[in-house]
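Please, structure for the following, as tokens.
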Amino acid sequence: MRLAWETTRSFLGVRGLAAVLFLLLLLASGCATGGKYMTRAEPIVSPPQGKALVTFVRPSNFGGAISFGLWDGDIFIGILGPDMSIQYETAPGEHYFIARAENWACVKADLVADRQYVIKANPVIGAWKARVVLSPVNESDYNKPGELPKVRKWLADAKPMMPNPEHRDAYAEPRRQDVLKAKEMFVSGEGKYLTLVAGDYLPE
């Protein structure tokens, strides 16, 4: 067994071996759900009057052992795992939605009241651990053949979750300053982000 390990390490090199080990982790079908920090939620069909609803969805169990913290600026939204969704009610206007993995990912959103928006999150292979991609679903996406039914299926199949009020602060407080620094990076234009504009809401 040790000989096989040494042979593999010699053949791949340290970085190659790290990539293989990471790929095995990424392909795991574990059930990362945020542990004690997250709990089941009732699905929200439409936003409360005067509010916007943003649904973060991860429609795949690819990389099942990987989960991502989601933020609206320094407001903790939740931890998104595979086959999960987190629905976030917020005021209309400008928001910087941020996710953390090996990288920081961001969607700058301009929301209007009484509408629902969708942002998809997925893991991808990074240098040493998972990276996160945040992909806003735009109006042009909904206009593609078959796209709207696909998005509706994501939302129907995903398990809705929300932060556990008893443990929310324990997760958020140690990370808040790092998130604020990341937000400043995106606000200043140093960090690249994707956009979600007012008209990108989910069609009724």
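Residues 78 and 168 are 8 Å apart (CA to CA). The chain has one domain: 35-196.
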